[in-house]
Write a structure and sequence with these properties.
Blueprint (H helix, E strand, L loop, with lengths): L1 H37 L12 H48 L4 E4 L4 E4 H52 L15 H10 L11
Helix pairs in contact: 1-2, 2-3
Length: 202
């Protein structure tokens, strides 16, 4: 009974973690798409607007690493399942050997097996379980690393976006945004083509 409860709690925790990862990836992708659609390319300068492309880079990297975390979590779950399945199979074979089974019939393959076959299969499944267990721990560490970097890049993207919005009122207009001077206005008026005056009819 306690094992069933722990397995159920683990399954619920894994499901909640997967949903959270999907949610973060969807939010990051949506924000990146919105900013990319409204962003107007411009020359890099020392103004708050420079933080917008930086925010796009951070959000894109966070989205990509978030997808890598989802992939690593799925692969780790598969390795965990394979390790448990191989360990349970090796345990069943060990029980059969201890009970003195020297031959039998495998309903899965339809073939007969001997005591030596049980020993070989037991050893094989033990090695298989250990291999998947090592791969599980390795992939889990990678998923944890992706989790940390996804959050760091996401916070960095939000920070760059907020800086681009909140600091803009405190910076003067750039040369491209400055209103034209009186001399420039006079030059533009002089350079404009003059309309021809209609000639009086004789």
């Amino acid at each position: 009974m306690p094992e069933q409860q722990s397995a159920a709690l683990y399954a619920r925790g894994r499901e909640a973690s997967d949903k959270f990862d999907y949610f973060i990836a969807a939010i990051t992708g949506g924000i990146f798409t919105y900013i990319a659609q409204t962003y107007v390319p411009r020359v890099f300068d020392f103004t708050p607007a420079t933080f917008e492309p930086v925010a796009l880079v951070f959000l894109a990297a966070s989205f990509f690493i978030g997808l890598k975390r989802i992939e690593a979590t799925y692969i780790a779950t598969q390795h965990n399942y394979e390790a448990l399945d191989a360990s349970e199979t090796a345990g069943k074979m060990a029980t059969a050997i201890n009970e003195g089974v020297t031959h039998g019939f495998d309903p899965g393959t339809g073939l007969e097996f001997s005591g030596e076959d049980l020993f070989r299969q037991k050893k094989h499944h033990k090695l298989l379980s250990k291999s998947h267990e090592q791969a599980f721990y390795k992939t889990t560490k990678a998923a944890e690393k992706y989790y940390r970097w996804r959050n760091r890049l996401l916070f960095a993207g939000f920070g760059a976006l907020l800086l681009s919005k909140f600091l803009s009122p405190y910076f003067p207009l750039t040369n491209a945004q400055e209103p034209p001077s009186q001399q420039q206005k006079a030059q533009s008026v002089d350079s404009a083509p003059k309309s021809k005056q209609p000639q009086p009819k004789k």
